[in-house]
Structures are given as C-alpha cells and as structure tokens.
Write a structure and sequence with these properties.
By secondary structure, the chain is mostly helical. It has one domain (17-392). It has 17 helices and two strands. It has a two-stranded antiparallel sheet. A hairpin with a 5-residue loop joins strand 1 (156-157) and strand 2.
Length: 393
C-alpha cells in the first residue's frame, strides 16, 4: 500500500515538475525576446547601432563595434541582418562588412554566459553551465583571432574596384553561381508563441515611460533580464528535482547519442528559431543540470553556428545586391571554417572551457572578468586606439 502511494506521489511530482519546467522554459524564451526587443528599441531610437558599425572603413573598428553591438542586443541574427542591410544600402563595403560579421560571431556568445551566472549558487552546476557557455564563446574567439589577420593581410583591390581578402573573394566567386530567389521570410515559431508576452511588456513599458521610446526600451530590457533569471531558476530547479533522469535518457538516446546527431540538432534547432542565442543559452541550464554530457555539448554549439547563418542568407535575399549576398556567403564560409578547424581539434576548446570554468567556480570574479574583458574592455580600447590613430593621420 505504501509502495503504491509513493509511486503515485512520485508520478504527481513528476508531472508537476514537467508543467513547471515547461512554464519556466516558455518564460525563459520570452525573456530573451523581451530583452532583445528593449535593447533594439534603444538602438533604433539613438541610431547608434548602424553608426557604430558603418563608421569609416576600418576592419578593426568594424570588428569591435560589431562585438559591442551584438553583446548589447544579444542577437547575432539582428546584427548580421543590420550589416547586410547597410551593405545593400551602400553605407558599408562588403570587404569591411565581413569583419563586422566576425564580431557578431563573438558577441552572440554573451547570452549563454549571462544565463550561466544564474546557476552560481550551486558550484558544480555552475561549473558545468559556465563550461557549456564557454564552449560557444571560446571557438568563436579563437577563429576570429586566426581568420581576422588572414583576411586583413590578404585584402587586395581587383581591377573592377572590389576590395576584399581571401574569405570575401571566395564568397564573391561562389555568389556568381548562386540564385537565392526572392527572399521568402521563414516562419519563426519561438517569436510567434512569445509575441503576446513581448507585446504586453513593450506596451506596459511605453505606458510607464509616458511615450519616451528610449526610456521604454530601458524598462523592457530590465524586465526581460529579471524574467530571464527568475525563469532560469525555475527551469534549473525542475530539471534537477524530477526530470533529470528521464531527460538524460531522452537526450542520450535521441539527440545526443553521438556527435553527428548533436551537430545536426544544433543546426536544425537554430534554423527553426533563427537565433543561436536562444538555442545555445537554452543548452546552458540543461547541461548545467547534468542532463547532457559536456563532450556532446561542443558539436551542438558548432551546429548552432552553422544554423545562425541562415538568417543572414534570408536578409541577403531580401536585399539582393551583390555585396549583400557576398557578406551572407562569407558568414556561411566563416562558420563552416570554424567547424572544420575546431571539431578535429575539439580537445583544445573543450579543455580550455573546463579549465576556466573550474577557475570561475573557485573564484566567481573570473566569470565576470571574462565577460567584461572580451565583450567590453577589449572592444572599447581597440575602438579608442583605432580612432586615435585615424585622427592622428
């Protein structure tokens, strides 16, 4: 009798945790879109996003400005689309835009790192979550460190006035053989199901701000951040309490049975929602709870990098100029190169991620140091130095 009662209680607890985890997941996804919506409002009202990226024709300025912009709006899809739009409008050259796309690849990894901070209370969980986020950030940074100087060093001007490095020229060659169609817009299920919450919070922010768009954007972004951490706590708790064993079996058998399936899942899920920020940051609490082995997380993150290039291709087909298509193809080539380099040598980024996450677990300030250094200090210093050198000429 007592055994049957315990089984019944466990069943009820499981379904209750399943419902709460689903609700937490929904609001987690809402929070990401709410934050992005608020920050985009700020950017559009001040017009500094486009101005920052399109300022001058300096590869380093384009790279660092793009890191900053993507870190703030937390969406490489948004930044890449903006870059392609600037190219299509003739405000940015394709050769310089390629460097800006590289910066977007670094900036997008900030979302997962911010999400991992929500697990700081439990050390072992934080170590796994932070290592998961680093597995997205570290390969992106390392690839830029390798390809940025190569692209810059090989930049030449052709007879028809086109300037670009090896990556840009390869993309231009491929573009000559492509017909990208009329720019059909894909349906985004995540945006569709979260839109009611995003709209309600945006309307509330506008009402509170008295119609001041910039103030409304700040309010919406802050509310989104609060919702994100609250939803994250609920998601992690319910994953750990009752769903971990069942989810671990599901992930092991279906999604993360081997590296190839994990890679394909990363591509497919990111294409479906058109946001690597969503898919990579969603993996952070799941891996942090122990439902997925860290060695399987890495190919998933690489797949997310491939999936996120689809948004740029869509943006290019909506603005079908030669330069816009070249930039979109360059983004695809860059991320396939990233995959080709780091999957065979995955031991390097995986060990770096595990080592630094262990360091951050012991002294939490290192987690904030990485965030501040990569996404704020280095870009700002590089921009200041570039501007000083430019004005001194």
């Amino acid at each position: 009798m007592s055994g049957a009662l315990n089984t019944q209680r466990k069943s009820r607890a499981f379904w209750m945790n399943l419902i709460l985890a689903a609700l937490s997941l929904y609001f987690f996804l809402c929070a990401i879109n709410v934050m992005g919506s608020g920050l985009k409002i700020i950017g559009k009202e001040t017009s500094w996003l486009a101005d920052a990226i399109a300022q001058g024709d300096n590869p380093l300025v384009a790279l660092m400005a793009s890191v900053l912009v993507t870190s703030i709006v937390q969406s490489s899809s948004f930044t890449t689309s903006l870059i392609i739009t600037l190219v299509a409008a003739g405000e940015l050259s394709a050769g310089t835009a390629v460097f800006a796309v590289m910066g977007a690849n670094i900036g997008t990894s900030i979302t997962g790192l911010i999400v991992s901070l929500g697990t700081m209370r439990i050390k072992r969980q934080f170590r796994r979550a932070y290592a998961t986020a680093l597995m997205h950030a570290i390969p992106n940074v390392l690839t830029v460190l390798m390809l940025f100087p190569l692209e810059w060093a090989t930049s030449t001007t052709s007879a028809d006035g086109f300037r670009g490095g090896i990556l840009t020229r390869t993309a231009r060659w491929i573009t000559n053989f492509l017909d990208l169609g009329s720019g059909e817009k894909f349906f985004n299920p995540i945006k569709a199901i979260t839109q009611p919450v995003v709209t309600a919070i945006k309307d509330t922010g506008e009402w509170i701000s008295g119609g001041n768009a910039t103030a409304a954007g700040v309010i919406v972004a802050i509310v989104g951040l609060v919702i994100l951490f609250t939803a994250l706590l609920g998601l992690v708790k319910n994953l750990k309490d009752a769903l971990l064993v069942k989810l671990e079996g599901l992930f092991t058998v279906l999604i993360f049975r081997n590296d190839f399936l994990a890679w394909i899942s990363g591509i497919g899920s990111t294409v479906a929602v058109q946001s690597s920020s969503v898919t990579t940051s969603l993996m952070v609490p799941i891996a942090g709870a122990g439902a997925v082995k860290l060695r399987r997380v890495f190919p998933f993150m690489l797949g997310c990098n491939i999936g996120t290039t689809v948004t740029g291709v869509i943006a290019a087909t909506a603005n079908p100029t030669s330069g816009a298509v070249i930039v979109a193809i360059s983004h695809v080539i860059f991320n396939f190169t990233d995959n080709a380099i780091w999957y065979p040598f995955r031991i390097i980024p995986i060990r770096l991620a595990k080592w630094y996450s262990a360091l951050a677990m012991r002294r939490r300030m290192y987690a904030f140091i990485f965030l501040a250094t990569v996404f704020l200090i280095v870009p700002i210093i590089a921009l200041i130095v570039s501007e000083l050198l430019f004005f001194s000429k």
